[in-house]
Design goal:
mainly beta; 3% helix
């Protein structure tokens, strides 16, 4: 197996062969370090620090792919998160410029048209240690984003 496949691995029984679940249409440049799914595991984002790929198994049984880094210019990806209705990606570069970039992608209909930058702030800081959290307001049922870094 290589880093161009998502596969099922039987860790309790090493005698069973791996089963390839998905072969990426565009190979990753490095081994993916992030992966998040929606609750029912029909949509997911897999990414490295330089590449981000959204896979939607509802649109296509083989997995419709949306290349997020090609569509947005994001790189130096630090954190990805799945809320109940949206995916969130925090990156430190866009089009090679340092900054804070927080991208929201709707899970209902993931597409380029349904991507929105919640934060787009150019600066000279290279971020390494950060995290992203969601808080939920019960009466309003809204997702709130919170970003933290050291």
């Amino acid at each position: 197996m290589d880093m161009n496949h998502m596969f099922k691995y039987y860790y309790n029984d090493e005698t069973k062969d791996h089963i390839v679940l998905k072969e990426w249409s565009k190979p990753f440049r490095e081994t993916p370090k992030f992966a998040v799914c929606n609750k029912v595991q029909t949509k997911m984002i897999v990414c490295t620090s330089q590449d981000a790929l959204l896979i939607d198994f509802e649109k296509d049984k083989k997995g419709f792919e949306l290349d997020i880094d090609d569509c947005t210019g994001l790189s130096n990806i630090q954190v990805i998160l799945a809320g109940e209705k949206n995916f969130y990606i925090f990156a430190n570069k866009q089009e090679g410029k340092l900054g804070y970039y927080l991208l929201l992608i709707s899970m209902a209909n993931p597409s380029v048209e349904n991507m929105q930058f919640l934060l787009k702030f150019e600066n000279k800081l290279d971020v390494r240690d950060c995290d992203l959290y969601l808080l939920k307001e019960k009466p309003l049922d809204n997702e709130e984003q919170i970003f933290g870094r050291k």
